Amino acid sequence: MRTLYHFHGGIHPPSNKTQSTQTAIARAPLPSLLIVPLQQHAGETAKPVVQAGDHVLKGQLIGMPDGFVSSAVHAPTSGTIAAVDMQLIAHPSGLPNLCATLIPDGKDEWVALKPVDDYRSHSPAELQQLLRMGGVVGLGGAAFPSDIKVRIGKQKITTLILNGAECEPYITCDDMLMCERAAEIVQGAEILRFMLDANEVLIGVEDNKPEAIAALQQAITASGPVLQQNKRYEVVAIPTIYPGGSAKQLIRVLTGLEVPSGKLPTDIGVQCFNVATAYSVHRALVKGEPLISRIVTITGNVREAQNFEALIGTPIAELVALAEALPDTDAYIMGGPMMGFPLPAVHVPLVKATNCIIAASKKIFPPPPPAMPCIRCTRCVEVCPADLQPQDLYWFAQSKEFGRAQAFSLFDCIECGACSYVCPSHIPLVQYYRFAKSEIRAREHDKQLADQARVRHEYHEQRLEREKREKAEKLAAKEKAAQAAKLASAQPLTPQQQTEQAELAASRAHIRQLAQSEVEHTDEGVTK
Amino acid sequence: MLSALLVMAAIAIVLGAVLGFAAIKFRVEGNPLVDQIDAILPQTQCGQCGFPGCKPYATAIADGEADINKCPPGGEDGIHKLADLLGMEFKPLGGDAVSKPKSVAIIDESTCIGCTLCIQACPVDAIVGAAKQMHTIIAAECTGCELCVAPCPVDCISMQVIEEKISNWKWKYPVYSLNAVEAIQIAATGTAR
């Protein structure tokens, strides 16, 4: 038995997971149209490589990664690209973003796949490139490109952690995936372990998913020959407590190590991936299939809550229709009830980060009572899993004292919502933190731009100065040359010629003097 | 008595030497306050303050020659920061200047005659072009100072407000929405719940 550790705080919201685990994962039918956003990952938007009218095959590249933190986007099925334009997407801002609209032709015809026969014969850099071009991103919700996470830095990675905790209420997509496709997850984990050269693999699963734990254990025993014998694989049942599935908290529970503020797990020799990410790594490398579908839980105010394997780009309206949303549904939440956000419209497409859609109604999620003043009861401090002082952060955020909020480690907040959940005054605390964080980020960005402008302005001034100097020097050199030439060709002059020359020189000097004083005048006019 | 005087004098000489050395060794070049003020200013280099750039304005503030409320691009926020730094009272933006939303200049390339006047006016060299060649603005480097707009003889430069996109979207300050439905109900029934 492994020694487990605790993280500070945590809450026990009603899990509401059983509704959607009654039936197996169903394959969602081919939708009438697919809207594929070109930015489904953290980082830069992929560059579209198709145009309206193009015919594409299933799995064909339609968005090329653009920049270091970026990932590829592929056609989820075969068909015709109807448009590449701005479309409403699943984002809390409700703003549109660049999407490719695909009309399926119904044939679902694959592009020629290039599976990797033996990934062990490839260099880590090649495998990273394959993940990048396979569009593999973290499927836990943040959608961070996986190829960047497997880059080995200075610190040796000792432990690879697979995150199967799935601590948020309602969401069961990882649970169902672990139950039904454990073997692929374990093989994906072995690929990731190989790339990171880690010594052990720990799969953390909350103890409210006994079937998933059993399935994974069985898969590890069964795939023994595939795994390297001297490496340790272990499925660890961890206590069910929210937010135990947050990467830093999971690392703490499994290893007892704490990721220092402002650092990454890799700095302490640990790397963490979601189980669904390991599954798509397996698909991308062993089968050569890019990430074009995912498992999504449709639950909440629906007749039949269920997990679907749906193509990326499927309009969410078509998915909730499959689960038969009840008529009193008034909003759809993407993600869980703790960290999710209401969708701007139900026709927005499914993206790689969509793990769950909850149909919300007044009955399930009654509107929160009006917020009252903070009474400094410190209940939020008791539950904060990041060991912060939420009531102080709230104070600084609402009075816009961003510097002090940062000094109180605002950026260590994982926005789990535990503080808002227990707040007796019903203050939307996380909203304040999000506001403060994005305001600070925007200011830092502006500062960067200002610094850039300052440097450019200084160069500009220097350039003007230099041009002026060079002009003067050129003029002086020319004059000197002319004089030298004159001297060389000088012959004895008559007295009359001499006086004429002297007069000429005097008037030239006078004109130069006048010109000089004029330049000074205009200079003054500029600087004053 | 004499020894005491001598000791005091010796101490004075030693300390004086130390201070004198420190004054030379740790001499601060320029006025550090100017840099601190310059760091707050938005670096648009627009000259709306009446000075030819942000640095000259910062110098003038440090010398006490200019007010802190002369920078429209910095807005009220900037004035607050300057007031905090200098220990002064906040003042509203001076004159009839208004703080405009951040924008970038756009050259209508089909109208541009390639006169290079805007290139000469740009304080951050963010315009590319040559004589009798079309000019264009490097949007990422443009500070939105509007100095290029006036010199253009064919009026082909316009200022475009930077739109809110997903990449620059910010979470808003939480506001509590009033429940319209309840208000109607109350109005209809005449009773509060």
- Largest beta sheet of chain B, briefly? 2 strands, antiparallel
Helix and strand content put the structural class of chain B at mainly alpha
Quote the distance from N terminus to C terminus of chain A. 80 Å
| Strand order across the largest sheet of chain B | 1-4
Identify the notable features of this structure and list them briefly.
heterodimer; A: 528 residues; alpha/beta; Rossmann fold; 6-stranded mixed sheet; 4-stranded antiparallel sheet; 14 helices; elongated; disordered C terminus; B: 193 residues; mainly alpha; 3-methyladenine DNA Glycosylase II, Chain A, domain 3; Alpha-Beta Plaits; 2 domains; two-stranded antiparallel ribbon; 6 helices; 4 strands
Outline the fold blueprint:
The complex is a heterodimer of chains A (528) and B (193).
Chain A: E1 26-27, E2 34-37, E3 47-48, E4 55-56, E5 61-64, E6 73-74, E7 79-88, E8 96-104, H1 124-133, H2 146-149, E9 159-164, H3 173-180, H4 182-196, E10 200-206, H5 210-222, E11 232-238, H6 247-255, E12 270-274, H7 275-287, E13 293-300, E14 306-311, H8 316-323, E15 331-334, E16 341-342, E17 356-360, H9 379-383, H10 390-398, H11 402-407, H12 418-422, H13 429-488, H14 495-527
Parallel strand pairs in A: 1-14, 9-10, 9-12, 10-11, 13-17
Antiparallel strand pairs in A: 2-8, 3-5, 4-7, 5-6, 7-8, 13-14, 15-16, 15-17
Chain B: H1 2-25, H2 32-40, H3 54-62, H4 75-86, E1 103-107, H5 117-121, E2 127-128, E3 136-137, E4 157-161, H6 180-189
Antiparallel strand pairs in B: 1-4, 2-3
Give structural notes.
The complex is a heterodimer of chains A (528) and B (193). By secondary structure, chain A is α/β, with parallel strands linked by helices. Among the domains of chain A are: 18-30 and 117-323, NADH-ubiquinone oxidoreductase 51kDa subunit (Rossmann fold, 3-Layer(aba) Sandwich), CATH 3.40.50.11540; 370-477, no CATH class. Helices cover 38% and strands 16% of the residues of chain A. Chain A has helices at 124-133, 146-149, 173-180, 182-196, 210-222, 247-255, 275-287, 316-323, 379-383, 390-398, 402-407, 418-422, 429-488, 495-527, and strands at residues 26-27, 34-37, 47-48, 55-56, 61-64, 73-74, 79-88, 96-104, 159-164, 200-206, 232-238, 270-274, 293-300, 306-311, 331-334, 341-342, 356-360. In chain A, the strands form 4 sheets. Chain A has a 6-stranded mixed beta sheet with strand order 1-14-13-17-15-16, sandwiched between helices. The longest helix of chain A has 60 residues, at 429-488. The model of chain A is unreliable at 524-528 (pLDDT under 50). By secondary structure, chain B is mainly alpha-helical. Helices cover 36% and strands 7% of the residues of chain B. Chain B is built from 6 helices and 4 strands. Chain B has helices at residues 2-25, 32-40, 54-62, 75-86, 117-121, 180-189, and strands spanning 103-107, 127-128, 136-137, 157-161. In chain B, the strands form 2 sheets. Chain B has a two-stranded antiparallel ribbon. In chain B, α2 packs across α3 (54-62). Chain B is elongated, with a radius of gyration of 28 Å. At the A-B interface, α13 of A face loops of B.
